[in-house]
Amino acid sequence: MEIAVLGGSNGAYAAATDLTEKGHQVRLWRRDTEAFGPVLSNRVIKIKDVRGVREISISCVSGDLETVVTGAQLIVIPLPAFAQESVAKQLAPYLQNDQVIFLPPGSFGSYIMYKTIRNHGCEANISIAETGTLPYLARKHDIDTVSISGRATRLPTGVLPADNSLHALAILQAAYPSIEPIQDALDGALMNAGPIIHPPLILMNAGPIQHFERWDIHNEGTQPWIRSVHDALDAERIALREALGYFAPHYPLADHYNTSEGEEWMYGLAAHEKLVDSADWHEPLDLITHRYMREDIACGLAFLVSLAEWAGIKVPVASGLLAIASSIVREDLRLTGRTIENCGLANFSITDLKQLLKSGELRKKV
To answer: Which residues pair with 54 in a beta bridge?
Structure first.
């Protein structure tokens, strides 16, 4: 299958190498071609995983978006949520009927991108899907090497418009067999693990993160008291999901910590141990600029809080964490973040929203 991968992120490099090894023809695009370094000229990325280190030749590496996207059946965009609108504007002129865009994960970026693409004149029959996590536990070690310490075994994924689910999910599963169909794109957005796992880890570890040169929030930073906040925050996510008509399985974050028994989470059993053992997350974090703040909190958590308020569901833990994060960045993220108000959906009823998710038909006021 012809697959376009957009971006120079950890996930983009992991996707480009992994999908190439699976036999797909992969085209890799990055806006900043200078940052590609030798990858642009030799089309080779080194991958490091349990099988060792090896070089993978990518079919096409380019800074020309039209070349990379044209003719691709699947477009994988593992970029931060705050980059989605910008990429959508660039994509709009080149998209074709039946193409599928995959956001792993999305923070309701499926809607943001769909609306932006339509508002920029694209009328192609496209589908945008989002899932609960990146298909890989991955970190780039240098300009041309990516380390993959784990791969997703279950990827709950919803599609916008949901009416296109049969077509879109068939293409997605050809690339990622671990894709599991769910109701729609909002269902997928509310599976996003980032806004649940990362806010307590960075906010409750803010002291050691700022004090020590390197601090592993998933190892030293994951302690029972923080896990209890995880559980309370995740319970609010699940309550919101149920209030909106999305039912089990909810992929509770607690399953991420299961080892040899219990329900398998998105990365399978013992995923947390693999993540810690890799030492790839023992890194410096700038809480003002890091994607855990700017994506998982300013986009994901802000959206969850605003959606819960819109639906009449109390989420005191989520609201409190959002307020603490706002005080750190000195910005009211409930006002400036990705909220249902800023998405233009605050005046919708639940019925109206579900119809939009099903058909993809946008109102002019959106």
So the answer is: 47
| Vertex 175: Cα angle to 59 and 30 (nearest 5) | 45
pLDDT tens digits, residue range 125-173?
Answer: 999 999 999 999 999 988 999 999 889 999 999 999 999 999 999 999 9
Question: Is the CB of residue 6 less than 8 Å from the CB of residue 79?
Answer: yes
3-class DSSP assignment, residue 129 = strand
Nearest one of 103, 297, 75 to 186, comparing CA atoms: 103
SS (H, E, C) 195-257: HHHHHHHHHCCHHHHHHCCCECCCCCCCCHHHHHHHHHHHHHHHHHHHHCCCCCCCCCHHHHH
Contact 56, 46 (CB under 8 A): yes
The architecture in CATH of the region 2-189 reads 3-Layer(aba) Sandwich (3.40)
β-bridge partners, 155: 179
Distance, in Å, from the CA atom of 346 to the CA atom of 360, rounded to the nearest integer, reads 17
User: Please, what CATH class does the domain formed by 194-359 belong to?
Assistant: mainly alpha
Give me the pLDDT at residue 365, please: 45
The domain ranges of the chain are 2-189, 194-359
> What are phi and psi for residue 239, nearest 5 degrees?
-60, -40
Task: Write out pLDDT tens, residues 248-290.
Answer: 999 999 988 887 777 889 888 766 776 776 666 677 799 999 9
Kindly report whether the global pTM for this prediction surpasses the value 0.90: yes
Residue 34 has phi, psi (to 5 degrees) of: -65, -30
Distances in whole angstroms, Cα of residue 332 to Cα of each of 309, 329, 337: 16, 8, 8
